[in-house]
Each structure stands twice: as C-alpha cells, then as structure tokens.
Amino acid sequence: MNTKDLYQDLILDHATNPKNKIKLNYYNKDTEGFNRLCGDSVHIFVHSKNNIIDDISFLGNGCAICIASTSVMTQALKGKSEKDAFTLINYFLDLMKKQNNDEHLKIDNVEYNALNAFKSIVNFPMRINCATLSWITAEATIRNKNKQINIEDYK
Amino acid sequence: MFENIKDQFPIFKNKIKGKKLVYLDSANSSQKPQAVIDAVNNFYTNEFSNVGRGIYTLAVNASEKYETTRLNIKKFIGANSETEVVFTKNATESLNLVASCFGEKFINKDDEIILTELEHHANYVPWHFLRKKKGAVIKFLPIDHNGDLKIDELENLITSKTKIISVTHMSNVTGTINPLDQIISIAKKHNIPVCVDGTQGAAHLDVNFDQLGCDFYAFSGHKMYGPTGVGMLALKYKWLDEFGPFLGGGGMIDFVSKKDIAYARGVWKMEAGTMPTAEVVALNEAITFINNLGKQNIINHEHQLTQIALEKLKNNNAVKIVAHPKAQGGVFSFNIDEIHSHDVSTILDQEGVAVRGGHHCCQILHDVLSINSSVRVSFGVYNTSEDIEILCESIKKCQKIFKK
Fold first, then answer.
1. Whole-prediction pTM value?
2. Which B residues, 335 through 364, put their C-beta within 8 Å of a C-beta on chain A?
3. Number of neighbours of residue B266 by Cβ within 10 angstroms
4. Which among B178, B222, B163, B205 is positioned nearest to B325, based on CA atoms?
5. Range of the domain at B346
6. CATH code, domain with B213
7. CB B79 within 8 A of CB B85
8. Are residues B257 and B356 both part of a single domain?
9. Mean pLDDT, to the nearest integer, of B160-178?
C-alpha cells in the first residue's frame, strides 16, 4: 500500500477543485458535522422537495480526503430521491468498513468509480473519519435530524 | 553531537513501512532508552512491591527507590529544601491539582486568572472548570506575530482581583521560550503566585526552580525519556500546608475514624492510592541518562537541529513556518501551501517520518495564528541532521503528490 493508492488523481482533483463548495441561496435543511479530533468541519446544505434532493452544497475546512469525499458526495446525491441517497450513503459507509455490497446497488459507472476511489482508505485507519464525515453529516441533513453532529458519536 | 545514541533506543531498530524511523514527535512523547526499559523490567522481575505500606524487605527497598527518584528529580530541577515534588499521573494531572486545590481555597466569583494564548489545553481546561464552578474570569496574555508573548501587556492585565498566573515555559507548537524571569518578577511585585506548565521545559530547557522563584512547576516523565504514567509537580512547601487534599483514598491519611479524618502532611497528602511505582523507579534511570549526557549538551543539540531545519526549509517557498519566536526550543510547526496537515502527516508516515498534524491541543493558539492546523516537528537527543534531510525530501514528495 503506498501513498498514491490513497491520494488518487480523482481524490486530488476534487480536493483542489471541489464541486458544490458554496452556500445554497435556498435550502431547507442543513447540518454541521465536526471531527473534533482533527478539526475537520463540513456544513451541508440541502434543498429537497417531494423527497427529491433538488440541490446540495457544502462549506468546510479539512484535509484532502475530507474535502474530496464531500465534493464527490454532493455530486452523487444531487438529483437523487432521498431513498436512493440513503442507499448510496450506506454503500459508501460500508465501503469504508470493507463491507462490499455493490451487487445490490444500481449506480452508474462514473459514480461507482468516484466512490471506489476512496477504497484504499480502509488501509489508513486513522483517516477513515476524514472520508465518512460528510456522508454521515449528509444523512443527518436529509433526515433533518440534528443541526450539529460529532463524528465520534457515530462509530 | 551524540554519535551512536540511537543504539541506546531499541525502537530505532524497527522499520516503519520498510523505512528507517525518523521520529520527530518528542514534544508529544520521547522514545525510551534501553536503561529505562530494563529498569521497568527489573523492578517487576526482581524488586516489586508497593511503596509506603509494608515493612518487609521488598517494601522497604521499593519505598527507598521510589524516594530516590524524588530526591534526584529535586536535584534535576534545582529545587531547594523548601520545595517538594509530588508524583502524579502526568503533567495534566499536576496542573489539575494546582487549579483544583488552589481554586477551592483561593478563587471566588469574579476573581481573575491570567493565562496566555500559547497554552496547551492542559493549562486551560482545569482553569475553565473554575470559571464554570466559581464564576472566575480567565484573561489571556496575547502573543505578537512572531509568536512571542506581549510581555509589556502583563501589567495592564493584572488587577486587585488577579489570583494566579499560569503560563507555559515553552510552547509545544511554536517552540517559544517564555521570559519566565520577567513574568515572575512582575507577579511577585503584585504578590501573585505563578504556576508554570513545564511539560516541554523540564525535558528541553534548563530549569532551576529555586532561581525561577515560581510557586508551581508541572511536568511529566514520559517527555524526558522516562516511562508514561508519571507526572510531577514541584511546589513550594507552604502550598502543601495551604492546600486541602486533591484525591481521597489510602496513603493520604494520618488517622481515620467514623467521625472524622486527619490527612497526611507533605507530599503524602497528595499521593492517594497506589502510585505508578515501577514507572517512578524507572524514571530515575531517565534522569541518569540525561545527567550522563549533560542537559546543556542536549539543549544545544536540539537547538542546533532546529536552526538547521529552519534554515533548510527556507529553501522551500511552499513551507510556511507558523511563528518565529525570539527564543526557541527544539520545536517548530509549519504548513505547506494548499496541503492540509493531516495529509502531510500521512504522506510523511509512508516515508518513516513521524510528525504530528493537527492543533496539538492548542486550539486558541491556532485561532490566534488564523490557521486551522499545522504540522509539528520536535527534536530529541536521538535526532540527527540526516533526519532533517529525510524530512525535507519527504516534504518535497508530499508536494509532488499534490501537484500530481
């Protein structure tokens, strides 16, 4: 396992030029997620209508893994039904636990590749929270559950 | 300066990710020489007993060894006959002891505590407890853009309500060595006791408790090549009389009845329950290790390495050192343009280089410096200029990965 497996081009691209990194003008759900151990923070904004995620964006500070994962997450969830979003979130979180269940998932190749670019992180246990922070926060946002969450509580 | 010193530290025989270990995190905790490891082993193998309890041979010998460490620690920090050293779990517990015992007796609503913007959370959170519990006020002596305390502003912060000043000897992020002489002399003028967080200082700076004239000096053994689990608090004896006990339990009592309890006097009042006996005994070997090499030689060595590293990193425009204090110990922190400290830390680890990324338990300092986190490099006696070469090359690899 070398560093390049972790810092793949797709991850570096999203880290240096994150997508949807802006505060939405119109949103009806938002949650701030923190990783208190390292100081990463993401604020996720969602505009959802009739259980469809119309728009999603984020603001935040963090390492390349955290920002790239958040950027990929917003791209993947935008336009999805909330139900499909939860399926995708669970898929990604399982991926980070080394539990593959992709046969049940209908996702297109682009999404599959984007999400699986993060697969090597399981070999860097100290960094898994960097990747999962925004996905866990997004789930809380869509469920409109908490205004703030701490990733340490979601282990 | 210390040729072949790594041979005394068995950890350097191991490879990290197939690479030579370049350990640059001594400000966090130092590696242990074989003599210290052997002392722990020997105590458990041949000499183990609890201390201060039994009157059988093993107990007497263990107690004697435990007290020998205390005596040598006193010498090590230049404590005079009016000074005591209390053993605790770590420097954090030592600072909690001061805040708790001092606060209980001397801090009331609206009383003021002066800290600085350089403090580790260990020298902030215990005082914050007093803010919550007693309604005390915490004031922070600010730093300038170099990371030095604005010492001129100290007089202005002091009022008739100021009850204590607690300040670090040396920042664990910027390496700033604080002018304790000045701080203590100003405090004395106003009759305010001074507590020093010596967690970095005891291991990496010259300490003379008697000359300094502070009231408390908190430090830990694991940062000075000793085992984990032992902290120390040097304090003027009068405070042991003034303070109530910190923790209650066995060993800290004189007499117990159903009606009342009389507490032990002196250090015993503060050492409740079974102490980290083997660790205290082995700490003596760490002091011997430092004394044999000469503390001043170690200080010079670490200072020299810091200067070499800072000079070399000047050649890399992307590396931004977070502060440039006037007096600096063997610690500095930096960021690389556009690369987060945790990414740097992960990539350096692949090269066998152990550095810490994050806020290093100093969130206030990072806020003041307007940075989210930083990468910290800190030196110990075992580091060499070759370690710095590897660090600089690894930083370049980091930049290469992010440039793709």
1. 0.93
2. 338-343, 346-347, 350, 357-359, 363
3. 12
4. B178
5. 5-32+294-403
6. 3.40.640.10
7. yes
8. no
9. 98
